[in-house]
Fold:
Amino acid sequence: MELDQIVDALARMGVVLELQGANPFKARAFSSAARTLKRLEGALELIDAGKIDTVKGIGKSLAADIAAMRSSGRFEALEEVAADVPPGVFDILSLPGLGPKKVRTIWTDLGATNLGELEYACLENRLKDLKGFGATTQEKVLAAIDFAHRNRGLQLMNVAWLTADDLLDALGGVADVAAVAVVGGVRRAKLVTRDVDLLVAHPSPEAVGAALEGLEELSEVTAASDDQRACRWLAQSNGLPVEVLACAPDDWGWALAASTGSREHVEALEARGASTQQSGASKLGTPGVRLGPGHTEAPPEEVALYESLGLAWEPPEVRESGTLREAGEGPSPALLTREDIAGVWHNHTDWSDGSESLEEMAEAADERGLSFLGISDHSGYAVYAHGLDAKRLKAQGEAIAKLKTGSCRVLHGLEADILSDGSVDLSGQGLEDLDFCIASVHSVFGMKQEEMTDRVVSAIRDPAVTMLGHATGRLLLSREGFALDMDAVLDACVEYEVVPELNANPHRLDLDTEALRSAKTRGLKVAINPDAHHAGGLDDLRYGIAAARRAGLTAEDVLNCEEPAS
Structure:
């Protein structure tokens, strides 16, 4: 096991023991060990050297468990105790606001062992009568279950994109394949999706099925349709549903547009074709192209299809409606691309809750061709993230000034907490030497809309604040954003010259599409930030760019496309 897997196993053991009502000291020992290992520098080296029991809080018994996990890849004790917990209880545990103690009460006193049983108990008003709950908690639990139902089966953009990347490579290697593309919601850069759709051009579409069954990246391959125009198969890849369509190379242009969607867009194309008496399956030539997630060039066969209908080609990300652009209106605006981006702000290091050093983050940014990198570790209020007090912030600034990292310029910033009263955690922080300051909400999410809006707007008014981080606090598929009057927030950003952030972490992608469009109509530039906590997190920039494209943003709308002032 790697360190993160060991940490997760120890934390889960603590939770399972607490669910079962085991000795609380034993449960806390596992949870505490997980936290210790997560923060411990050189933890793996100590484990491999057999010296992890020298760390405070990790005795010989825990050290033996850790060593066994490291060598065998299993935690047998966890497997044994977890087997006594109904699987659905862990689904209940995933609901916000329900810790192990409350979930144990739900399981033992209410008899609910899955979300369905808990929902039914809430609808019968039985949860509110349990000790420690009440009517308000019952309402929140019902809302959380509804959120879970609405998001069941969905996957984040990064999961879908990485799966699509692997499948694109695999299908591209199949004999006689003329072209392969990722289509559907993934090509349209939907923030969450239920499956991955792929289109394959092959001289004999029906022959693709045999090739699919031979790919180790796919399992459970089943033929779903077979007609003269196209063939379709359903499969799985790492548990994610996959749909593969195959067409003849001459049908590529229409098949690419039709399988990309959306339904409204395709119906509008079909209606246009019917009105102009154009055949959807026009002979558009042999494609010979491969299109993956984030591909921004217009494929010539698809462009030819739009031209044959008297239309301007539309980038896939903006095909969510049935609105079409006439050819006479000129081409669509050139949407943002990776090549437009000069650099990013909002990144963390091991000075707070990041896992890599200043030097490692700067080198990673330089390797990725970024001309500037912002470092914005947490302010002192964020004790949970080892936030920086004024002394450490000054020391970090001195360390940044001494960095030598090729052509990438490192900017010194701070991510300061927006406190519940609307003030920003800036006292004694030595702000005069900072290049930028991001203000973000990290706690007390349950305020009413008016109160939360006043809180955020108050922070925007602070003259030290230059950027607003992940404005709504949402976590896709995990947590709804808090109530916020976004128009009022964006108006305040305009008035006080504060830049709203599009947080590119695929769990956030916050601002959402509507807010990004509202920023654009106000002439308000946004900053796309990966919020990276390790070097690989810088690559999340691709998801932020995709989200920006869905909102119709161009390079002129994005601050990252400009070099910051010296």
About this structure: The mean pLDDT is 92. DSSP finds 21 helices and 15 strands in the chain. The chain has three domains: 3-150, 155-329, 338-561. The first strand starts at residue 155 and ends at 156.
